[in-house]
Amino acid sequence: MHTITFFAPKGGSGRTTVVMATASAFIEAGHRVGVIDTTEEARRWPPSGQSFIRQWQTSMLTSGIGPDQLVTASAWDFDSFYSAKKELLTAGCTHILIDTPKAPNKLIEYVLLECDLIVMPFSGYFEATWISSWVTSNLCPVRKMFGLATGLMGTEEHQAIHRQALYGSPMLKSSLPRSYVFANQLIDGSFYKLEAGSDTFGYTDADLLHARSAATKLIKELNRLVKTRSFSRYQCGEQLATGHPLAHLQALHAQAPEAFC
């Protein structure tokens, strides 16, 4: 059993979207997946029913993914986290994916230390720099923390700047493209079960192939990392300046101002 945590100390970074895409890809590859929801919505007691993970699980069931393939649980404190993990282990899950809140707490600090791998999604240079600043300012297990570029826009030069904004932690070689296929998982469920033009959003074969190919490539890399723990093969980005959280980004801007236009 392998545990992968999806973490970013900022809202809107794409954590939950990446959790859903990763789970769908692992399920398609034949694994039984467990998802632990530790987001702000999961902390509400009694559950309000508004958690994205709970809504997505219903859509997954509608798309043909049953409890023999996907199990979810909520956790809002240490006791509920231990109970959730025990439930997923008893269910025989081969991979446990943990969705975290935008505001880290003591539970999340423990989860980061305890898990096998940490994935930090970001969709732009500001998010990448903010995440890097938080990680380097806190006692984090940097060796197993990997940045994941998601939905980057612009030319290849622009996207390279977004990636360079992450420092202090290595970057996954895989990435997830900007795609409505990922954005609509809450409604669609598993995008591996969709057929071109058959749903409300009218995806093309190319849309689905692009999303599936990227997600499949991502889980292969994650699987390789958690099994071999070959973290040393990845190099960390260099911090260009210090002094305040955005100093690195300002230095990056000074080097290539045209890429920020």
From TrEMBL:
It comes from the Bacteria. Pfam families: VirC1. This is Cellulose biosynthesis protein BcsQ. It comes from Roseinatronobacter monicus. The lineage of its organism: Bacteria, Pseudomonadati, Pseudomonadota, Alphaproteobacteria, Rhodobacterales.
